[in-house]
Fold this sequence. Notes:
The chain is of the alpha+beta class. 22% of the residues lie in helices and 20% in strands. Helix 11 packs across helix 12. The chain is globular. Mean pLDDT is 85; it is low at 1-20 and 399-404.
Amino acid sequence: MTPPPARRRRSGMNGSAPAHNLLRRGAIRRAQAITTYGVGSLIAVDHESFVVSGLDKADEHWSKDEAPRIYERRLARILDVEHFRQPPASDEHSKDGIRVRRFPLMHSCPECNELRRHREFNPPPGKSVCGTCGADLVPSRFVVACEAGHLDEFPYWHWVHRAAGRGTTAAGQCGGTLRLRTSGRSSSLRSILVSCSCGVPEVSMEGSFRKSALKDLGLRCRGTRPWLGTSVPAETCIRTPRTLQRGSSAVWQPVLKSALSIPPWSDGRADLLAPYWDRLRQLDSRAEVEDRLKFVFGDDIPVPIDEVMALLVAEHEEDPAGDEVRSFDHRYRALRNKEYERLRAGNDERERSHDEQFICETPLTSPAALEGTGVTGPMLVKKLREVRALKAFTRLADPNSATETYESALSDTRLNWLPAMEVRGEGVFLRLADDRLTAWEKHTAVIDRAERVRGAHQRLMEQRSSDPTQVLPSPASPRMLLLHTLAHVLINEWSLDAGYPAAALRERLYADEEMAGLLIYTATSDSAGSLGGLVAQGEPDRLVGAIRSAIRRASWCSADPLCIESEASGTGGTNLAACHACVMLPETSCEHNNILLDRALLVGTPEHPDVGFFATVLEHWQPAG
């Protein structure tokens, strides 16, 4: 079911208009303002359409009371901000909300069929109706966008006058009035007809979605960014825009980055010093740190000096070695490495304060039950906190691709914060047995399958990158594909056993030369994140049954033999044996948008059963009873 539209307020002609002069429009959950209706996205409210405004003047209406600050130092550091803010609440008690601007401006009237800009219909104040007919105006169904994130109106005038020859007349110079109607013969683009009163032949919208449709008209992207307002100048852009449906997912895709709160940052005490960390990092001695804190707080320093020094040491441990300057991707991977270390080490609840946000303990039962499965080191994450921040957004990005193209900024100016949400839940962490994994990774057939996926993924990233020479190597190694597919089948299994819907469970993968683990957890902003019961699945005596059952289910797919024998599937061949009938998950659950999956690496193939890491588990599996 489509979620309810956002409560929004339409900006007046003056961006600094007082809040009580702005109209309320709809309501959404806070989480949707990060994942679905973030800055730069289009949102439909009743019969109107708006673009969510940028953050340049967000300080004027994202009040501290309605948009509370949240802190996660490790994530804030790599995103180069001081803190994060939750989107303003949209309940009946909120005084303000998230600002929006009307977009697209081109509207049509279903009664008189005129197609013109919204204000040219002379609607009454606060309404979106035709000043002549009184009918509700319909926002343009079509917009144009480019890979650089720019968004613009569909060039209806150029489209209807294209038969007159390219470049013969500037837009609107004919003096005619555009009209839009539907023939009613079908729901295709051929039935949507555009005409002009100057006398040019009526044309349909058929062909407007061709990749070169606007290029053939001699049009280039104008570099417009309507979410930032009219006061922000357009950027220079040489790209050719593409026609999109206003409600298409390709119009807006979020770039989300997340981090788990882990010690020593997870008890919340460090949040009190958030504005001062960058300055404290530059000090060389304990005495200098103490002097600085006394200068700021006087004698009432909120955090003991010993704890401050421990936090500074922990932060310096994540610094690049020597003078090496690492890319964002390298620093983001370093963040995962620290999480992996902490998940392995644990954090016993009995030794921590009530404010601790990360509790990770060893199971109560013996791990001997897992011998022979290839899985080891389960940890019960009884309490966790995750912060997900909206770093930027993309347009025209394939929703099934794990690559990020040009990232559009949320603001035209430098801000010291980003929108974010914090979620809490529970989870189970487990690792693959090193000896068995090392031997399995050396199999020629395993390497060949992983190389096929890696090559396809690398080509896809290079095709979608504005600079292919800067694309990092694909992460599609044998252990990455194995861990990813195992996480998917366990989520499907636990959605049946633990009482959670699959969409409420998430994966977090730790896969490189030094890591081979996965965390399956609940971290949702609604009640599904607090049902309890997932931690119990991590006890070895229950975990072994879940693993065997999950592998058994994965050994057969209703699309077999086509699925298991597939030479390539998914976007650009970035999957092998994987489909929606076996291992694919809801988008909310998967870190990689359902690519980099291969069920055969779990269970083997008819020709090469030894390709399956869990092939021996299938051989010795006996159904209960």
